[in-house]
Structures are given as C-alpha cells and as structure tokens.
C-alpha cells in the first residue's frame, strides 16, 4: 500500500484498510526493534518536531522512532518556535518545508496542522490537536489487537470528557475499524453531534455501533476496554477544575467499574494520569478539593487489568510506522 507523501492529520482521512496497514507495519517494526534488527530505512532525511504543547511520550516516541529509522531530528518547543507569533503559520510551513522532509505538530487547533500541511509541501504529522489525536489511536489499536487478537467487535467504553481529541478520535477509529464505541459521561460532555453523525455513517459500513450513555452500569457491562483520560486539558483555566471534578466523578474508573465490565476487560489511558499524589498538580488538587485520585483510582491503574504501559510503548512503534509509510520506506 503506497502512502508516500501523505499527511497524517486525522483518521477521517484514511480508509480502514490504510489504518490496518499502518498497524501491521507497526507490529513488524516492533518485532524488528525487539529482535535487534536494524531498520534505518530513512538515513539522510531530517524532520522537525513543533511542540506548542509539551509531552513526554509524544516527544520521546517521535525522537526514538526517527533515530531508529536513521533520521535527523530538530525539536522546537514553545519557548523557541515563532509559529503564529513573529511568523505566520503559512510562512513557517514554507520555510520548514524547504529544510525538512517532514513536519510534526503538537498543539492547539486542528486548523494549524491543516495549514502546515497545505503550505509545507512535505508530509505533516499530527502529534495532537484539540480535536484529534491520530497517532495515539494507532497505538491504542495495536495494543487492543495484541491483547484480544482482533479489533472488530471489541466493546470499547470511553469514560469522562468525550468532547475533545481522545473521545473524538476513539469514536472515529472505532467506527472505521468495527469496534463498538460507547461514550459514557454526562450529556454535556458528549462529542459534537456532527462528528457523531459522521461516525454513525462510518459504523454502518464497518458493522460498528456508536452509543452515547449517561448510565455507567449500562455502558460498562460486558466492555472489553475501559478507557479514560484527564478531565482538564493543558491550557484550560484553573476554574474549570471544580466543575469537572463535581460533574465527572461519577464517571471515575474504579474497582466497581472494572468488576461490572468483567475480568476480560482491560484498562487504558493515554497518560499522564492523576491516579495518586505523585505529581505537583495532583498534590494541588488534593489540597484544594480533598481528593487523592481523579479519573482513575490507583488500584485500577496499577492493577492486573491495566495495559497503560504497553500502550505507551506502542506510541513509538506506531509513530515509526507513520514515518516509514509516509516517507516511502515501506
């Protein structure tokens, strides 16, 4: 399958067959890395990583994947990039496109990564925007397939704030690949209706189901995957914490939720997670609101059903697959 020169902006742009191809490539590259088989397919190429939002997993995944493939990497963090400040996104894209073979962007609105793709003339990869997180989806699907041996027919329940990149992207990839997706949350936190409608259409083709459910017991019964994410995203004001905690605490993933799902269920989280008091932000939340755990309890996060670190490792393998495919190495 030839994906050379393609952008990787959102999974709505890719067919189910193309998505599965990327997952297959990632699985092959994972075997090679674990077996110590060199795969420097892209020696001589250079990429630039633009991070308006910092991230441990995304940066490390892109840098290690690029180095494994033999590429040079330039990292631009929020303190050094002038994108949208002293230089327009259009001009930035045209400059970087003359110097680099591909561009990664992690930051805010989807329109930014779309503009980079329009003007750069080289493949652009979405490391995360407010609306979509496609590289995380490949890692999640690889992880699920490793655990269950299949994707089609898997029952995936996303709990918490489903309005943004994670809820949106999990719904899209489920609809594309035939997983049964449920957003379990209060009604105000459901995904936007236009995207629900689009995913309903895709689900008819794949055999998936799309549900929006406020009742936890109904949502999680028989689930294969229970998935959650932080309730407050980077860049949101402090005053939203109290509201989110109050309204989303009924959708915390805890032992009772996992028991209702069943022993076959796995727990997934894209990280970072507020599951204990191990971070400065978690301590601040504890001091202000008196809670030690937020979207997931420590018991579940550290429990035998948790696959969060398999998922985190798979970010590297699936990002490597995107790089290799869009730059013509596979």
The amount of helix comes to 40-55%
Instruction: Identify low-pLDDT runs.
Output: none
Shape: globular
Largest sheet descriptor = 5 strands, parallel
Q: Let me know the average pLDDT.
A: 96
- What is the radius of gyration computed over CA atoms, rounded to a whole number of angstroms? 19 Å
Beta content comes to: 5-15%
H/E element order: HEHEHEHEHEHEHEHEHHEHHH
Instruction: Name the strands of the widest sheet in spatial order.
Output: 7-6-5-8-9
* Separation of the first and last Cα atoms: 8 Å
Q: Quaternary status of these chains?
A: single chain
Structural class: alpha/beta
Total count of strands: 9
Number of helices: 13
Compact summary:
By secondary structure, the protein is of the alpha/beta class. The protein is 46% helix and 13% strand.
Commentary on this structure:
It is a single chain. By secondary structure, this protein is of the alpha/beta class. Helices cover 46% and strands 13% of the residues. The protein contains 13 helices and 9 strands. The protein has helices at residues 16-35, 56-68, 89-99, 110-120, 134-148, 165-177, 193-206, 216-220, 240-248, 255-261, 280-289, 298-301, 308-326; strands at residues 46-51, 72-76, 102-106, 124-128, 155-159, 180-184, 210-213, 225-228, 266-269. A 5-stranded parallel β-sheet has the order 7-6-5-8-9. Strand 5 (155-159), helix 6 (165-177) and strand 6 (180-184) form a beta-alpha-beta unit. The longest helix is centred in the N-terminal third of the chain and has 20 residues, at 16-35. It is globular and about 55 Å long.
């Amino acid at each position: 399958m030839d994906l050379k020169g393609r952008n990787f902006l959102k999974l709505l742009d890719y067919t189910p067959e193309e998505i599965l191809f990327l997952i297959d490539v990632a699985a092959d590259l994972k075997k090679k890395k674990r077996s110590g088989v060199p795969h420097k397919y892209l020696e001589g190429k250079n990429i630039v990583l633009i991070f308006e939002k910092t991230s441990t997993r995304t940066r490390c995944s892109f840098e290690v994947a690029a180095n494994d493939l033999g590429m040079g990497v330039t990292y631009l963090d929020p303190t050094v990039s002038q994108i949208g400040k002293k230089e327009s996104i259009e001009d930035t894209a045209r400059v970087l496109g003359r110097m680099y073979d591909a561009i990664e962007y992690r930051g805010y609105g989807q329109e930014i990564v779309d503009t980079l793709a329009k003007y750069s003339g080289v493949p652009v990869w979405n490391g995360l925007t407010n609306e979509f997180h496609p590289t995380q989806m490949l890692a999640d699907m690889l992880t699920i397939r490793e655990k269950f041996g299949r994707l089609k027919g898997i029952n995936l329940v996303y709990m918490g704030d489903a309005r943004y990149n994670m809820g949106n992207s999990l719904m899209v990839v489920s609809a594309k690949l035939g997983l049964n997706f449920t957003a379990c949350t209060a009604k105000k936190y459901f995904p936007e209706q236009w995207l629900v409608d689009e995913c309903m259409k895709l689900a008819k083709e794949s055999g998936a189901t799309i549900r929006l459910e406020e009742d936890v017991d109904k949502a999680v019964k028989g689930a294969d995957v229970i998935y959650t994410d932080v309730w407050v995203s980077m860049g949101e004001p402090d005053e939203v914490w109290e509201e989110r905690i109050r309204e989303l605490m009924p959708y915390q993933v805890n032992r009772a939720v996992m028991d209702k799902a069943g022993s076959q269920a796995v727990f997934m989280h894209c990280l970072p997670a507020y599951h204990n008091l191990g971070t400065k932000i978690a301590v601040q939340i504890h001091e202000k609101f008196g809670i030690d755990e937020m979207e997931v309890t420590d018991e579940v996060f550290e429990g035998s059903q948790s696959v969060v670190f398999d998922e985190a490792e798979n970010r590297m393998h699936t990002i490597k697959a995107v790089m290799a495919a869009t730059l013509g190495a596979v």
